[in-house]
Design brief:
Elements: H1 10-22, H2 37-41, E1 47-52, E2 55-56, E3 60-61, H3 67-76, E4 81-85, H4 95-104, E5 109-112, H5 119-126, E6 131-135, H6 136-139, H7 143-152, E7 156-161, H8 164-173, E8 177-181, H9 194-204, E9 210-214, H10 220-223, E10 232-235, H11 237-240, H12 247-250
Parallel strand pairs: 1-4, 1-10, 4-5, 5-6, 6-7, 7-8, 8-9, 9-10
Antiparallel strand pairs: 2-3
Helix pairs in contact: 3-4, 7-8
């Protein structure tokens, strides 16, 4: 149940194909108890999913830091959940980072990676993730099957879209946590109008689940366009570049 990746363009395709080539299933430890992501994001105001990200294709090296210390700072600063990069080549992450953060903080964790094989779902759950990122640009019509498998093993999913076509696929697949990425993953360009535009379309289509805006947010002013429409914003680079790693002081 792997997606066809040969036609995925740009950096996204390059990363995904390398991840697919590295999948080697192995025995996993028992699944730990984890706090639910959806429950953490519900409530008044805009929740922050703070991201632990050492580097990226668009920024290069962002910051050399201990993932657990960053996670603890985010937790103290009021983040409702954490996004932990586990992709090693472009983002400098690892499953060990996910495991250490799970053991050190009580917040829900999103495994942020390029899921292209069902084994990565079980792996995320075994290493302590509450949820996994499912990128519609990679999974296409298999998005629903991956959602179903994630649910079967007690794993929530943030289903990520960037275009209207991807939004339609996500809604048809039954996504309940919908991430709208302002960054085009093939060109790496950011347009902050993308999330509000597609978010309104999702609500107009009757989507009643959680909306999460992703990528490019640096100021409180930029987040105002999300108020009353989105439930959460996933913020990474601007937090990682801040001196004290405190979401409440910067966002």
């Amino acid at each position: 149940m792997r997606p066809r990746l040969d036609q995925v363009p740009g950096v996204l395709g390059e990363i995904a194909r390398r991840r697919a080539s590295e999948i080697r299933p192995y025995p996993l430890p028992p699944f730990p108890q984890v706090p639910p992501l959806a429950q953490a994001l519900r409530g008044p105001g805009l929740a922050v999913i703070a991201e632990v990200k050492k580097q990226s294709p668009s920024q290069g090296v962002i910051r050399a830091l201990d993932p657990l210390e960053a996670a603890k700072a985010y937790e103290r600063g009021g983040a409702k959940a954490l996004s932990i990069l586990t992709e090693p080549h472009w983002f400098g992450g690892s499953l060990e980072d996910l495991k250490r953060v799970r053991e050190g903080v009580g917040l829900p964790l999103l495994r942020k990676d390029f899921v292209v094989d069902p084994f990565m779902l079980a792996e995320a759950r075994a290493f302590g993730a509450s949820a996994v990122l499912l990128i519609v640009a990679l999974l296409g019509e298999l998005t629903g099957a991956y959602l179903e498998e994630a649910g079967r093993i007690g794993l929530e999913a943030l289903v990520e879209v960037h275009t209207e076509k991807e939004l339609e696929i996500a809604l048809e697949a039954g996504a309940r946590i919908l991430g709208i990425n302002n960054r085009d993953l093939t060109t790496l360009e950011v347009d902050l109008k993308t999330a509000p535009r597609l978010g309104r379309k999702a609500r107009a289509r009757g989507f009643s689940g959680l909306l999460v805006a992703e990528s490019g947010y640096r100021t409180r002013e930029e987040l105002k366009a999300l108020e009353g429409l989105f439930d959460a914003a996933l913020i990474g680079t601007s937090l990682m570049q801040s001196e004290d790693l405190n979401p409440a002081r910067h966002m």
